[in-house]
């Protein structure tokens, strides 16, 4: 979450400098907003990479201190926690102004605006939290394997989601594709973490051993740490 806040600080400073260098007024600098949003996305992914490097270093330190020479926290666990933290803090900042506005005065739609503003914002925030969690898993795995294609798809997907929000208040054109992308990215992250349809079926079933002990299978087949 701290790394995401650093990216927000960098994006805010970049926007302030851009406004001062262009016209000096924020309302007149609105054409610069798409470029500023893209820069904010790139800053977030850069901070995600810095978070990966820091956690990887911390994992090596924990492995050096452990008795068996292995870190008690796997890289996949770090990726999940990092992505979830990015998502929660990002969702909190994206919804807080909307919640403040919902307290009034006035009513949504009184001037012909969409009455679905609040429910759509809630779904978009939910998708953003999930996407950051999924992106964290995929991003860390791509960095570990040095797979440039995975990194490019994560950054490209983040830019696409950010760009789709500019279609609001045409919510049908923004919310639908974002939810579809969330589902596809979730399946991708599930496969990246070692999940498979066969493991899901095993997870949903229970195996009865001769002693009467029930064994529950995990849906994620996590290989041992290298």
TrEMBL record:
The chain crosses the membrane at residues 28-47, 79-104, 116-139, 151-171, 177-197. This is Gamma-secretase subunit APH-1. Pfam families: Aph-1. Keywords: Membrane, Notch signaling pathway, Signal, Transmembrane, Transmembrane helix. Belongs to the APH-1 family. Potential subunit of the gamma-secretase complex, an endoprotease complex that catalyzes the intramembrane cleavage of integral proteins such as Notch receptors. Residues 1-16 form the signal peptide. PANTHER family: GAMMA-SECRETASE SUBUNIT APH-1 (PTHR12889). GO terms for biological process: Notch signaling pathway; protein processing. Its main location: membrane.
């Amino acid at each position: 979450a701290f790394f995401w806040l650093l990216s927000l600080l960098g994006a805010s400073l970049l926007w302030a400098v851009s406004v001062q260098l262009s016209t000096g007024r924020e309302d007149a600098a609105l054409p610069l907003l798409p470029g500023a949003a893209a820069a904010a996305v790139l800053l977030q992914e850069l901070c995600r990479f810095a978070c990966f490097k820091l956690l990887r270093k911390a994992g090596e330190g924990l492995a050096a201190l452990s008795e068996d020479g292995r870190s008690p926290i796997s890289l996949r666990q770090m990726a999940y926690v990092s992505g979830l933290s990015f998502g929660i803090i990002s969702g909190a900042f994206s919804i807080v102004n909307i919640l403040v506005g919902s307290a009034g005065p006035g009513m949504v739609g009184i001037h012909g605006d969409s009455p679905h503003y609040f429910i759509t914002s809630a779904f978009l925030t939910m998708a953003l939290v999930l996407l950051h969690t999924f992106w964290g898993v995929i991003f860390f795995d791509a960095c570990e394997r040095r797979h440039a294609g995975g990194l490019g798809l994560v950054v490209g997907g983040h830019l696409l989601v950010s760009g789709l929000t500019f279609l609001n208040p045409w919510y049908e054109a923004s919310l639908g594709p974002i939810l579809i992308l969330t589902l596809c990215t979730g399946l991708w992250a599930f496969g990246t973490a070692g999940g498979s349809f066969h493991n899901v079926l095993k997870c949903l079933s229970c195996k009865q051993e001769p002693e009467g002990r029930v064994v529950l299978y995990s849906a994620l087949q996590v290989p041992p740490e290298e």
